[in-house]
Amino acid sequence: MEWTKSAKEELEKYLEHIRSNAQLSGADPIEVTEDIKRHIDEELSAMKLDVVTADDLKHVLSKMGLPEDGPQDRAEKLLEIGALIRKSMGTLFDSLIVIFGIILPAATLGIELVTHMCGQSFFDPIPTFGHVILVGFVPLANLLVWGALKKENFTRMKTLGFLNAIALGVSFFFTLLFLPILPLSAIAVIYMGFGLLPMAPLLSFLTAIALRKKLRTVNQALGHPKVYGLWRGVAIGMGILFLIELPSALTRAGLELAKSESSQKSLMGVKVLRSIGNQESMLRLCYQRPGRATDIISFVFNLHDPVVPDEARTIFYRVYGVPFNSMPAPKLSSRRGGDFDLWDFDEDQGGEAVAGVLKGMELASSRIDTSIDAEGGLAYTEWIFEFKNNSRFQQQEARAQIALPPNGFVSRLTLWINGEEREAAFAGRGKVRQAYQQVVRRQRDPVLVTTSGSNRVLMQCFPVPPNGGTMKVRIGITSPLIIKKPSEGFYRLPYFVERNFKIPKELSHSVWVEAKKPIKSNNGSFVTEQPKKELFALRGSLKDADMPKGENTIRAERSPDLLRAWSIDPANQGTAVKQVLVEKQPVTHGHVVIVVDGSRSMKEISPSIMEALKAVPQNVKPSLLFASNEIPAEKDQIHIVDSANGQKIEELFKASEFIGGQDNIPALLKAWEEASRRENGLIIWVHGPQPIVMKPVEELKQRWERRPDGPRLIEIQGAYGPNKILELLDGVSYVESTPRLGDIKEDLIALFVNSTSPNKTWEFQRDRIGRSGVSALAAKQTSDHLARLWAYDEVLRIIGTSSKTKVDDAIKIAASYHLVTPVSGAVVLENKEQYKQAGLEPVDSSNVPTIPEPEVWAMLIIVALILGWQIYKRKGYFSWQRP
Fold it and tell me: Which of 268, 273, 780, 868 is the most buried (most CB within 10 A)?
């Protein structure tokens, strides 16, 4: 298409006017003229001309609108445009723009920041600081555009058009987000006069459209066919939103894969989450109720298939290898605090799971007092702790899983009610839990303790009152000492395994341990004292994270020749309990299978495990199996380990990734198959936390119930945390726990040697005898905790017989001696009426175990001497003195 000379001159004259006007309005002259030329070419092409003349060009330009005659008229033209805008923007228009486009969205953002009403009731529209900035930009952009129009300042039309386009994009997105709740908002406005806040995005969007029409009017008057940057601004606004939400969006996509029923897809999702998943987004899902979104894109996902908290908690463990509640709890829906942030719905209240950390719940104080009787081979500990609830409105339940001293059990439970101590009732596990749940429903004051796996108990108390209210509990623990040789015994402190309350950084557990023989610990922070002659003490303050460490183990000296002890039987005055420390010939195990948890929590200690394996006696060639559901089938094998070939052991450990959280049940089943092929098989399970049970344990339980001659399982925990597998195996007599007394390497070597070598070990044997047989024992009398130790052994022996009819007998023994066992529990209720309704009888306060004070020991001796003197006198042994 050719142009005549006159046509070219006419075009250049026209474009010169356009450039001048563009400079006057603040637009880019080059971009504007290029846009005009492109539009003219399109018009001329449509006319299908071979030669373009000046008349043809004028015809096209007339359709587009001619520019002003000259720069000298621009000021006058701007005045005309200003008059036009003033006329179109009346008082009503201004009021609507200011109220619905500026004040309402800004006020809505402020209210949501302070109260977080939408986040608590529906979803969180501003989960990140980036969302807050973007949402706040909408009323700001409307204000800038409206202000420029009111001031008739048309020099920045390009910038105003761009800002308006971003506001359009953002407000449109949030309009779609709030669309489902707009009908509820409309009903609220009509019938109750409020409910405008959810309408703020829609009204902001309509305001931005109205302002864009005014911008178009000005631009056309200035000779521009359209307002600058509509699609570019919308794309930038949406793009920023997308980038802000990209981590959570990718996390949500990974979660969809990870929750798939297909094992391959599920594993792929877990690997995606390990690579690019957002930990905070996953934690928020762990704490959210079903159907609640954590961010905007997740909200869209959740409309179809929400990730429920149980699924999120399982996936969290598989990804990171730690329990979700071991991480700091995220703010449920707000980063800004406020009263609503302290309201935390507890779905697990009254249940048997510790679950997530509750907002406002914390440990206010903690003291541990322990008395060790080294000659009697036992210890008694009282752990008193107080919970505080900082929530403003909500009563809350404190729950914790507690690891007891090795082979220990709870023998006392006390709750302070109105400053008075109330002792617990001990009865069958189901009976005490039912009583607890009934009282919890009535919002009264109970505390409950039941076992939660080998050597662990679950403690729960409710209600801890709001506004700084407290609840004080005491747990008494009876335990035997661990004896490696007759001259010393070992004791390990209890500690929290899992809890639903936080422990302030400045809070420590105050520990006091005393004995009549010297005691010591490898913890250098403990202070050694000797308050009185023949009374030795250790005291110190321990942070919660340090409580499980082996360095805190207490070593107590004892007389090596004193192997016998006895005590009165508090449940039967006609009998006594004797104890003898004897050497025991270990069982010769036909085959040993070692299962090593392949989870990430074990990675740090894996070199210690490897070194311990090299110390296995050379005459023993155990099988080694890594518990991991991510090992390819061709590599998922049982390896015969020869301690003489340390290189092979190193290669096996190097090949194991120790990643994420692994399901250990398939490996335990495989180990059972291997160990059961020979007589007296043994499984040693070295593991970290198992907070999630991914497969039922019933198959494992069935094998032990149906094969009484099946292999033993000895578990030893390398990394600390909850173990749901052991909880479900509670009461299975073939499952034993190895106490941790030092670092993992030392404890494992001791376990390997003791379980595979013919060397004799020491253990206590306890029997109940007639009271008359005590005098012939030549033994030391100790406290009645010895009788409780016998009763606890008896309960375990009865329930280990697999005879369901004898469980009632076991419950009766546990209740008589006040023991928390796999078949019994302890509960404190508020008053006698509640005990009566539950069919329970609390322990008489005069018949509970206590920590004997030194003065009490002295008083007991004095009283015994006085009584003996009186009896001696009455029997007339001093009759020769009478007149």
Answer: 273
Calpha distance 825→805 (Å, rounded): 19
Strands 447-451 and 456-464, how do they pair?
A: antiparallel
H helix intervals, 656-712:
665-675, 698-706
**Residue among 538, 497, 525 nearest 368 (CA):** 538
- Locus of tokens 């004040």: 103
Q: Answer for the pair 289, 345: CB distance below 8 angstroms, yes or no.
A: yes
Cβ atoms < 10 Å from Cβ of 739:
21
pTM of the model: 0.72
Contact partners, residue 208, CB within 8 Å, separation at least 6: 101, 138, 141, 142, 164, 167, 168, 171
pLDDT at residue 759 is higher than 50: yes
Distance CA 138, CA 209 (A): 12
What is the secondary structure of 224-264 as a DSSP string? Answer: -SS-TTHHHHHHHHHHHHHHHHHHHHHHHHHHHHHT-SSHH
- Residues 409 and 478: beta-carbon distance below 8 Å: yes
176: left (phi over 0), alpha (psi -120 to 50) or beta: alpha
- The residues pairing with 399 across neighbouring beta strands, listed in sequence order, are 460
356 neighbors 344 (Cβ within 8 angstroms)? no
Measured between alpha carbons, how far is 251 from 666 in angstroms, rounded to an integer?
Answer: 28
Is the peptide bond between 548 and the residue preceding it cis, with omega within 30 degrees of 0?
no
The closest of 553, 552, 556 to 535, measured between CA atoms, is: 556
Nearest CA to 504 among 328, 287, 334?
328
Q: Alpha-carbon distance 23 to 21, whole Å?
A: 5
Q: Summarize pLDDT for 798-852 with one digit per residue, the tens.
A: 987 756 678 889 999 999 999 999 999 999 998 888 888 888 888 887 777 776 5
Torsion of CA 646, 648, 653, 657, to 10 degrees: 160
pLDDT over 80 (residue 24): no
**CA torsion sign, 203 to 209 to 211 to 214?**
negative
How far apart CA 416 and CA 398 sit, in angstroms, is: 15
Closest among 312, 337, 282, 296 to 122, alpha carbons compared: 296
743 Cβ neighbours under 8 A, 6+ residues apart:
550, 608
Please write the tens of the pLDDT for every residue from 562-612.
Answer: 999 999 999 888 899 999 999 987 777 778 899 999 999 999 999 999 999
Is the CB of residue 530 less than 8 Å from the CB of residue 537? yes
Give the span between the Cα atoms of 558 and 143, in whole angstroms: 84
Query: For residues 564-595, b (16+ Cβ closer than 10 Å) or e, as one string?
Result: ebbbbbbbeeebbbbbebeeeeeeebebbbbb
% of the chain residues with pLDDT over 70: 88
Nearest to 164, CA basis, from 108, 94, 222, 213: 213
Dihedral of CA 582/583/588/594: which sign? positive
> Model confidence over 319-350: pLDDT tens digits?
999 998 888 777 655 444 444 444 566 777 87
